[in-house]
Amino acid sequence: MILSKSDRKLRIRRRIRKVSFGTATRPRLSVFRSNKEIYVQLIDDNSGNTLASASSRDKSIDAKGTKTEVANAVGKAIAEKAKKAGIETVAFDRGGNLYHGRVKSLAEGAREAGLKF
């Protein structure tokens, strides 16, 4: 059985979500990557609330440079918002994407700014 690209990604996403769970003290850092933009949220799965979010579309993010550089800036922005909310550690959810390129850059930017995962 040959899976399409979207079916394969959905299968990977479900496999990740089996083990990745966010609480109020350790929320889930969920990443969504489209062709042009990148979005990230801190989610408390117990209550189903989004605690903080950032994206490459935000006015506060300097969206100049390559997509990888912008993803790094988004990672730093979400780490700053997490610090303001009193969050230090998160559970990383790459959302079915491979851990390289923009997803890796976002994670490195969040770690540089002080998030632990």
Quickly list its features.
Ribosomal_L18, 3 helices, four-stranded mixed beta sheet, Ribosomal_uL18_bac/plant/anim, ribonucleoprotein
What portion of the residues fall into strands of 2 or more residues?
Answer: 15-25%
Question: How confident overall, as mean pLDDT?
Answer: 93
Radius of gyration of CA atoms, rounded to a whole number: 14 Å
How helix-rich are the residues, as a percent range? 25-40%
The total of helices stands at 3
Topology, pairings included?
Layout (H helix, E strand, L loop, with lengths): L4 H15 L8 E6 L4 E7 L4 E7 L11 H18 L6 E3 L8 H11 L5
Parallel strand pairs: 1-4
Antiparallel strand pairs: 1-2, 2-3
Helix pairs in contact: 2-3
Task: Tell me what the structure shows.
By secondary structure, this protein is an alpha+beta fold. The chain contains 3 helices and 4 strands; from the N terminus they run αβββαβα. The radius of gyration is 14 Å and the shape is globular. InterPro entries: Ribosomal_L18, Ribosomal_uL18_bac-type, Ribosomal_uL18_bac/plant/anim. This is Large ribosomal subunit protein uL18.
